[in-house]
Amino acid sequence: MSDPDWTVLVPIEVLEGETIPESVVDVLTTLPVVVLGYHVLPEQTPPGQARLQFETQAQTKLDELAAAFRETGGPVETRLVFTHDEEQTLDRVADETGCDAILVPNPAPEVERLLVPLSGEVNGSRIAEFVAALIGDRDIAVTLLHVADDEAETSAGRSILSDAAAHLRDSGVPDAAITSEVTVSQAPIRTIATAAVDHHAVVMGESEPSLRSFLFGDTSEQVAAQSVGPVVVVRRERDGDGSGET
Amino acid sequence: MVDSPGGPAPPPTEATNRDGERPAVERPETTEEVTVVDERTELERTIGLTGGIAIGVGTMIGAGIFVFPGIAAGRAGPAAAGSFAIGAVIALLVALPTSELATAMPRSGGGYYFISRGMGSLFGAVVGLSLWFGLVFASAFYLVGFGFYAEAVLVRLGVALGGFDVVVPLALLFGVFLTVLNVTGTENAAKLQNGVVGVLLAIIVAFLVFGGLSIFGLIGEPEPIGESFLSKGAFSVLTTAALVFTSYLGFAQVATVAGEIKDPGRNLPLAMVGSVLIVGVLYVATIFVAVSAFGSERLATLGETAMVTVAESFLGSLGAFAILFGGLLATVSSANASILSTSRAIYAVSKDALLPRFASRINLEYGTPHVALGMAGGPILALVLLGEVAVLAEVASFLHLVMYGLMCIALIALRRDEPAWYDPDFRVPGYPVVPALGALASFALIGFMQLTSQLIGFAIMLLSAGWYYYYARDVTLRGVL
Fold it and tell me: ipTM of this predicted complex?
């Protein structure tokens, strides 16, 4: 079952004072991470010029952040990038390092409950496998959530969730830890964000071709802004060698 | 690219400038979307082919079409189109070797970088510092061109100028505005630049279509003009070519951002050669249409904004409005692109310890290179005060042409004794004829400039060499990657 090694990309704007809360490090202890320190420059500034001035400072900061992950045991790789284009950098590094998921950091007090919203568009079994790997042998409860447009869609939603639940059980998550919930709402994002308040972290599928549209577009902005905890975005499977080994 | 232990050795430790600074060694490793320096830090490449062409065309188009037609026609007669064609051929002869060098060394700094690595630090310093001033002269030229268009707009709006010459004050005002904008502005203007270039191309193509129809008597009331092509003699065609060569400086600006171009092996040659071809064809066609419609004598009396009157004769006030708008847009786009290139040129020499490292400082608040932008903006404003379009243009061309000629020679020098690291993706066709002709033509064109421009150009080169001997004579750059 453990085909992909489920590496998680942790992007940090390293010179903007962004840090990784300890609780977020805890969420990811079970998985290998790539800590991507990056700095976005206005186009007047060649990336090399910024590197000349900020490399040492950025590298030191990045090493500190990586050390936090290293202490908890998982394998850690670091990358430092000066760029004009955040989207391109995140996509490229995720591809090059074979990352299957990306973290949007938010502090979390502890991680005991995960929210996993599943729509019809995302690959439920892939997300379920990721969630199982993330949980490992920890005692973490999972809420699978499907937001249906109307009553007629609820049965389809229920089958998506029961498939995912079966995958979770197959991957070793105890049945008692899994809750399934189908809600009807015209405003799925708000519903997910509201549900996220009762959970410590959210795992979502990437629903658009571009990572950016998910990470920084409406969906994630609202979910990440409104939920208290970190959001992990599981990337779609890439063509070719993009998404690690299969 | 070989940057392993077999690669170039770091410079000897004693090779510092007067401030004790050494060239920043990067040992870069280039792939399609990123440069990895020191096997550790990554510099993202984010400018695609469209962006590269937009930089080239956007830098060039302001001068050739919107400022020069009247002046050029006055000097060369109907053969002014020939002057622009000569310029295009020379630019092409240089753009091809530049493309080869840029794919072999896709780094920030452009011509300066190739020459310093191919021919050593003295040539590098002279070219690098001259390029700084060459771009300063070019930026001032574009700003003065902007001033003429802004004045024409005010005049047409019926603003009473009270007999004052507002060209220079307007140019100054806008020079300050652009400099401040570049220091404080963090909005991404690259997409805007692409849009501006698109709008300009549309305006020019429309102008050519209506102008063509008008000349052949299909619309409007053409006045037959019987002028012999070489009415001012063949020599004047060459001196005019030297003057208007400023219209072709932009392709080398693509090389100054070579370090940020995606897939440089493919996109750099396409962007450089492509932008020269695009503007070359448009220039020649525009001058031909303008001269055919108005005759060179009448065009000459209209000066820097002659094109406005030409377009008005084709399309009435709509035509005048389109060219006024295009002229403002084009001169601003060219001025801004040149100011940014100046800042990059300063960074390139400062990184190599030929200027104090301080010049590369980045502003913490905005993340912009405020020192270099100031070192660009200050001299630009001083030159705008000069207000002399022809001298500004020629000195800019002079300093660029020296670099162009030396780039061609650097290419020949590198090819004769190819170092292990020299592995260009694009090789110039017709070697060694093309680079040799490129070098000869570049130096020859300088000879056709007016004496004032030549003296100023030489003085700047001498000062640059003097600075090198004073400040950084121990710095070694040849083959240091």
Answer: 0.86
